[in-house]
Write a structure and sequence with these properties.
This protein is mainly alpha-helical and about 290 residues long. The protein is built from 13 helices and no strands. The protein has one domain.
């Protein structure tokens, strides 16, 4: 991969990761047309994932910091409750335990963890299927068309008013399932999860926040798994810096796109993206049959 290809693919990743048009679908299509093999781009994909997480952390840093603090406090409360129960049993006392989930941020933390469970199970179980699907144009083509349908559904869905205190753990689990399914190239992770959030009655701004923050454990988990599959013996230092340039391009582009996504969801303007995904999906399918 040349540095121009790396930066170009990085910009595509940054543009498409946070807009509801499937970054994986775009990368698979471009890598097929550019003739770049999956083995050569594995570490590149990992670095792009890390770049994505850094962008999310930068944009939602206040929420994420509060969630981290509340996670530590919840852990402290769990320890306190265990000690209290042991004390009560030993001393025949009746000291009260602390309520663990008693504010919106603590509930948000637990909801993200609940969402991460089905995502991890589906992502791990389907990793070989996703790898095979990434080697052809037909799967991203079909999934892009499905993604277009999802966006149209999201566009006509009435806006909800749910914030963390109103969201059930069942909702969180089902949104995690949606995120797990979006590992297929062509299904936009952000588009799929935001649509699932809106269909669950989430308030629009919270739907975006939930979609991107819940992506952090999923993306980091996938990146760590991929790190073990990289053949480092074939990696030259110069190639690593070429990949790093692409990851930087993805991060810079993505920072502006994630803010654009906040505006898009607030105004519910998904139709243009749906049409784009439909056209690109048809082009990908046509390209598949032309290459045969």
């Amino acid at each position: 991969m040349s540095i121009l290809q790396s930066i170009f693919l990085g910009i595509v990743q940054g543009l498409t990761e946070f807009l509801p048009v499937s970054s994986s679908g775009h990368l698979v299509i471009l890598q097929n047309f550019l003739g770049i093999g999956n083995d050569d781009t594995l570490l590149f994909d990992v670095l792009l994932h890390f770049g994505t997480v850094i962008v999310i952390i930068c944009v939602f840093r206040k929420d994420i910091l509060r969630m981290l603090l509340e996670s530590l406090r919840m852990l402290a409360d769990v320890v306190y409750n265990i000690q209290t129960r042991l004390h009560n049993r030993r001393e025949q006392d009746a000291k009260r335990c602390r309520k663990i989930v008693h504010n919106n941020y603590r509930r948000f933390v637990v909801q993200v963890l609940v969402s991460a469970i089905p995502t991890a199970v589906i992502g791990y179980a389907a990793r070989d299927l996703v790898s095979i699907a990434s080697q052809t144009l037909i799967v991203p083509g079909v999934c892009l068309i499905l993604n277009a349908g999802l966006l149209l559904v999201a566009d006509v869905t009435e806006a909800g008013h749910r914030i963390p205190k109103d969201v059930s753990y069942t909702n969180a689990f089902m949104i995690g399932v949606a995120q797990g399914l979006s590992t297929l190239p062509g299904l936009s992770r952000s588009g799929t999860t935001i649509a699932a959030c809106l269909l669950s009655g989430f308030e629009k701004k919270f739907a975006v926040k939930y979609s991107f923050i819940m992506a952090i454990p999923a993306i980091l988990g996938a990146a760590v798994l991929e790190l073990f599959r990289v053949d480092y013996s074939r990696l030259a230092i110069s190639q690593f810096f070429i990949y790093l340039a692409g990851a930087a391009a993805a991060g810079i582009t993505g920072y502006f796109c994630i803010r654009k996504m906040l505006v898009i969801v607030r105004r519910k303007r998904f139709k243009g993206f749906a049409v784009y995904c439909l056209i690109l999906g048809i082009v990908a399918i046509a390209g598949y049959y032309i290459q045969r």
